[in-house]
Amino acid sequence: RLKTKLQLYMSNEKQCWFASSRFVEPMPLKLSPVALGSSFLPNSSLQFGAGARKLHAEGNGPKSSPAAAPDRLPFSRVTQEDLAFFKKILPGRTITDPDLLESSNVDWLKSVKGSSEVMLRPQTTEDVSQILSYCNSRNLAVNPQGGNTGLTGGSVPVYDEIILSTALMNKILAFDSISGILTCQAGCVLENLSLYLEKRDHIMPLDLGAKGSCQIGGNVATNAGGLRLLRYGSLHGTVLGLEVVLADGRVLDCLTTLRKDNTGYDLKQLFIGSEGTLGVITAVSILCPRRPTSVNVVFLGCETFEQLLKTFQLCRGMLGEILSAFEFLDSECMRLLNTHLRLPNPISDCPFYVVIETSGSDPSHDGEKLHNFLEEAMACSLVNDGTVATEETKIKALWSMRERVTEALTHDGFTYKYDISLPVERIYQLVTDMRERLGDRAKSVVGYGHIGDGNLHLNITSPAKDPALLAAIEPFVYEWTASCQGSISAEHGLGLKKRNYIYYSKNPQTVALMGNIKAMLDPKGILNPYKTLPDNLK
Amino acid sequence: RLKTKLQLYMSNEKQCWFASSRFVEPMPLKLSPVALGSSFLPNSSLQFGAGARKLHAEGNGPKSSPAAAPDRLPFSRVTQEDLAFFKKILPGRTITDPDLLESSNVDWLKSVKGSSEVMLRPQTTEDVSQILSYCNSRNLAVNPQGGNTGLTGGSVPVYDEIILSTALMNKILAFDSISGILTCQAGCVLENLSLYLEKRDHIMPLDLGAKGSCQIGGNVATNAGGLRLLRYGSLHGTVLGLEVVLADGRVLDCLTTLRKDNTGYDLKQLFIGSEGTLGVITAVSILCPRRPTSVNVVFLGCETFEQLLKTFQLCRGMLGEILSAFEFLDSECMRLLNTHLRLPNPISDCPFYVVIETSGSDPSHDGEKLHNFLEEAMACSLVNDGTVATEETKIKALWSMRERVTEALTHDGFTYKYDISLPVERIYQLVTDMRERLGDRAKSVVGYGHIGDGNLHLNITSPAKDPALLAAIEPFVYEWTASCQGSISAEHGLGLKKRNYIYYSKNPQTVALMGNIKAMLDPKGILNPYKTLPDNLK
What we know:
Two copies of one chain form a homodimer. By secondary structure, chain A is α+β, with helices and mostly antiparallel strands. Chain A folds into four domains: 4-30 and 292-406, 2-Layer Sandwich (Alpha-Beta Plaits); 33-165, Uridine Diphospho-n-acetylenolpyruvylglucosamine Reductase, domain 2 (2-Layer Sandwich); 172-287, 2-Layer Sandwich (Uridine Diphospho-n-acetylenolpyruvylglucosamine Reductase, domain 3); 412-492, Alpha-Beta Plaits (2-Layer Sandwich). In chain A, 34% of the residues lie in helices and 18% in strands. Chain A has 20 helices and 18 strands. Chain A has helices at 4-11, 33-36, 49-58, 80-89, 98-105, 125-138, 190-198, 216-221, 229-232, 235-238, 268-271, 305-319, 331-341, 363-379, 392-403, 405-410, 427-438, 467-473, 476-483, 508-521, and strands spanning 46-47, 94-95, 112-113, 119-120, 142-145, 162-165, 172-176, 181-185, 239-245, 251-254, 280-287, 294-302, 323-330, 352-360, 385-389, 414-421, 444-450, 455-462. In chain A, the strands form four sheets. In chain A, strands 15-12-14-13-17-18-16 form a seven-stranded antiparallel β-sheet, with helices on both faces. A five-stranded antiparallel β-sheet of chain A has the order 7-8-11-9-10. A four-stranded mixed β-sheet of chain A has the order 2-4-6-5. In chain A, a hairpin with a 4-residue loop joins β7 and β8 (181-185). In chain A, α12 packs antiparallel against α14 (363-379). The longest helix of chain A has 17 residues, at 363-379. The interface between A and B is large, with 87 and 87 residues.
């Protein structure tokens, strides 16, 4: 029975795509804390700031876990004189209203909560330069913040750091349709850039679930990976230029719009993935691919992970240059999508699901390649069931099965999130091993992610925060990853929560050199303190 | 008449490619100085070392030009004790024979000549570590050398720097055919890696004319661009890991083989394009694309540069994901190929020639896309003539029209070479302006390069070195480039010859930060001195 749908699809005319109509309308995924309601899991977050200081004093605060913040560093505290200065240079854009500050003090997962009392909203690079110059001279710590969609606590203050929001730096500066190079301010929301480019026959080289909230500056600062990396590569390759304000207010202008420039060291690379700890990115130029004229999405079910891997190999060979994504989720993810978001399974139940996307310039060629691939996948019994979409609404609906897993998890309970790079053939073993290890202690143990990039998202939930469960997960998960020479943070970064685990993926020599670079660029350490680098450094 | 060939091709069956048979067999391009004979243009090279010191003393030496080397820095000179140490750790691999050293003391263009008296040939990372640790403690300068195919004098000693050759570090360490990730020592020759991968159904993500001699370590150290950048992106995206020995002998192990790893700063990026001035790259891991099953090359002629640009735009739209190169040469390049290398023009004479390559996974789809594109290009009168190749020998022959321009130039006289990035629509204006400006003073003024990357190779020849001609070219060419926010070195790097022109493409703030990084990683400045960074820095 299971093969019927695919066979039905394949017996149709090449152009007449079979697409399931069983989907609910895709909901826009808004990743701001406000959208999820502030009552979500308030008791399970790491508490710092005023409350945390009390905990510290009692000796049982965040220090007990390597993920927790160290004591507040001896930065100055914001005075009335400081506020007067900020209000003078940023009239109407110096926010001190606690209600307005609340959503910027807590991350999207509600797992980290700071106690900042001031948020600055610069509009220009000059504004940012003035702010940092002042803060550096006054020894005031600064938390640069984009869309605040990060998952490792890197985007919110830990104590009373001044929040420097790039939200008002949202101007598109230039787009060259011949070269496909876009230049814009750091605060542009990814989805807005995508919409702007679509009208101009191009697309952004990156796409991620948080696109409706995340900002390009934050994407670059965290070296966001996402759904198109398989095809268009990492931001280290697609970002052509950056403008960065250094800790002391100096503006580092590397905002070139050239595909090639070998005049000295490529300094902008340092800031890609540095999570705002080395400088504040104020503008970005990025190489954008042509908009594909033909996009297809296939949702397939596999019986085993081995079959899924074989499907991937077949796919790489037969879809070749039109393959733009190869994502997976397991049956546990499907259960959460069904239960918490009422998203029905578009195909029959299988242990593993695959989302394959093709993007190309010729619908009939792409259709033929896809047809041949599916025929071969069925002939080899690699897939059990599947459905194909070529129309935009259906494509979005199929994609939401993959993109909304993160959201479904937030409804399942307190979530322990791991974002792991592994050799692709080892990816699912970690989920299986973890499931076996935790048994009934965990509510759900789910695996999904980017097969094409060797990137697993392992998520474990429990009804509430559970130190015993955490102790069963960590450091096991990191040791397991290190034993395969994997990365303990493939694309989420280290932020606050993972910073002390860096040694599982980087040797001390390398981490020490990172410390030297931090000391060189931000000698007072005012930029996003307590993030990225481990506490025991120097 | 001119359209006949294309029409003939297009009237054939889709699979039955028309391909000209007018080519001579392609000659392997060997880029070692020895291969070209050491008598080539000996009088026109910059002379340093013993001879140069004499010139310095007379006050009219290399210091007169910003391209020339500054005085020798106060490094130690190699003693008998030093040689004894090297011979002990590198028995049989410590070269002091002047005949053997000669070809490593001079660059391929014969434009820079050092006077090193010792070349070390390590086989392992540990060898390199011991060498640098020793040299750093003894204050001995070191010139890391790969295939010595660089064009800006970065790959040879300027005075008596010890040559550290990576030629014997030529082991392939691992290849994972599932992920396409290759790990190898730095001294592997690019062409050997390509051959190795071809047998395993993959290709290197970069290709360049010097492939028969250049080494992957040198490619990475100079951030080589080449012929596939349009499709597969820069080395900043495709290099996944590096092992680097720092100036003091410490081994920095960033040799991961993961597509994604966001655990701290991406330090390896610093060394990509740093021309051996920050560390010696000893091993590389790199992401390799699948070998395309269908490759076609088209050689077209255009009447104007505007038509050439329109052809490029049409090509991007209609060939889409299978476009893998869009290169150009002008009629002056063709004249040099005819005259000096006896390569006949495969089509009728035109002012501009284009080499378009497609790489895909389905010969019939690719053929159809190409067919449609050529039909449209003819219908719009964008091209005057053309020929198509799908068979390997013919493909190589067509490619050699583009790849061997550099070689043809060396036979035309003393060559002034410029490697410029510009907005694509401005690219040829610089050639036209230069031709007009120089008039009869230049023997040839030719333009060729990578249209798809906005990268022009502007070359000017004269019968012999001509200071008056040089004064007419520079700084005009740099000022012209800077006025368009271009790069004065798109892919060749700065090396010795362009280091002092860095400010035309980078602001002082940025260059100063480069200096800080150099000082941090190589405080004694022993690594490839006189290269990349300008003389007036600190």
